[in-house]
Write a structure and sequence with these properties.
The structure holds two protein chains of two kinds.
Chain A (H helix, E strand, L loop, with lengths): L1 H23 L3 H27 L5 H22 L3 H71 L11
Helix pairs in contact in A: 2-3, 2-4, 3-4
Chain B lengths: L2 H27 L9 E7 L11 E3 L3 E11 L4 E11 L19 E7 L4 E16 L2 E9 L2 E9 L2 E12 L4 E16 L1
The chains are: A mainly alpha, B mainly beta.
Chain lengths: 166, 191
């Protein structure tokens, strides 16, 4: 009786291990799909990073994180080439996750940079307009004062007769 | 000096001062384009991280270390890809004249992002595995690079070359394009 029980128990363990390995092993298609997704996400994160950079945002922190994503993707591709689809899929999914987070952050800092740049532009325009007005009015009134001073000085001049006219 | 002359001087000085006052706003609209050559560079360093002591006589099952580096001077952040390839003396290298990469299959790759003006460097640890001599040719079946064993199926003379092709992501075509840069290192395999 106990031998039969042991046999069924071992058979159960064997079937369970086969089931688990089938459930958790990843096929080539799944690995390809994960790698393709990681490639697309890395590329779109790069595009978002360039946009943020053009908007004047500081992207050094994002680049460091994107490097992790890129490195995972490279490893995924190498694992795929040696038919290790489990690792290929694992690394590709990690890469996608990081690249997605970076992409979202790149969008956020892009709009933040645009907002800050607009604020800065408005301030510069206001500053310049004020400066131009001050220069204009100072020059205008300065000129009037100077002109008055000039006329007064001319009027105070006494005519002198030369010897011929005398 | 007549009053008209004074007026001219006054107006000229006023205009100069107005331009100076308007410069913060003007600088936001007038952009002077940067005139600089855009390029990337790639290099290989020896085990001491210098341009010397490169491994040359390499034995099977022995670990060798080199470093590969890239410098970005493209004026913006770049997304790079390096393909590591292995060739014998008869197999093709990338063609610099036509900017075409080598048609050989890559055995390993590195991917990274690099800000403008920055450098990137990484270790390349490799071990020649499963190498033997067959009909006066060296046959290498596998190489381990950075602890990942890859198949190479190399057959050729004892002299072989490992080279690193630099590719860059092109936003216009939405794909990696060969960047017309490669660096290589020669080996003499001792089995």
């Amino acid at each position: 009786m106990s031998t039969k029980l042991l046999f069924f128990f071992l058979l159960f363990l064997l079937l369970l291990s086969i089931h688990v390995s089938i459930s958790f092993s990843i096929g080539e298609d799944e690995a390809v799909s994960a790698i393709t997704k990681a490639e697309e996400t890395n590329a779109s994160a790069y595009r978002a990073l360039i946009d943020a950079e053009k908007a004047g945002a500081t992207t050094s922190g994002l680049i460091n994180r994107l490097n992790d994503a890129a490195s995972y993707l490279a490893k995924a591709k190498v694992f795929y080439e040696i038919n290790d689809f489990n690792n290929a899929s694992l690394f590709a999914n990690n890469s996608t996750e990081i690249a997605n987070a970076v992409k979202i952050e790149a969008f956020t800092i892009k709009y933040q940079a645009i907002y800050e740049s607009n604020q800065c532009l408005m301030f510069s325009i206001a500053e310049s307009a004020l400066g131009v007005c001050i220069v204009f009015f100072t020059s205008f009134f300065g000129w009037r004062v100077f002109k008055q001073y000039y006329y007064n000085r001319v009027l105070k001049l006494k005519p002198e007769l030369s010897a011929d006219e005398a | 000096m007549k009053l008209d002359d004074y007026q001219t001087v006054f107006m000229a000085i006023s205009l100069i001062l107005m331009l100076v006052a308007a410069s913060p706003a003007l600088s936001a609209f007038i952009r002077i384009p940067k005139v600089s050559q855009q390029f990337s560079e790639i290099w290989i360093l020896g085990p001491n991280r210098t341009f010397e002591d490169y491994p040359f006589q390499i034995r099977a099952n022995q670990l060798y270390t080199t470093y590969v580096g890239v410098g970005n001077h493209m004026g913006a952040s770049s997304y790079y890809l390096i393909y590591v390839k292995f060739r014998n003396q008869t197999q093709p290298l990338p063609d610099s004249n036509t900017s075409t990469p080598s048609p050989l299959q890559s055995i390993y790759e590195f991917r990274f992002f690099l800000a403008d003006g920055e450098d990137w460097e990484t270790t390349v640890n490799f071990v020649i595995l499963d190498a033997h001599v067959q009909d006066n040719s060296v046959v290498v079946k596998q190489i381990s690079i950075n602890d990942i064993t890859v198949n190479v199926n190399y057959t050729g003379q004892r002299y072989c070359q490992m080279f690193f092709e630099l590719w860059r992501y092109d936003l216009a075509s939405d794909s990696f394009q060969y960047h017309n840069r490669f660096a290589s290192i020669w080996f003499q395999i001792s089995v």
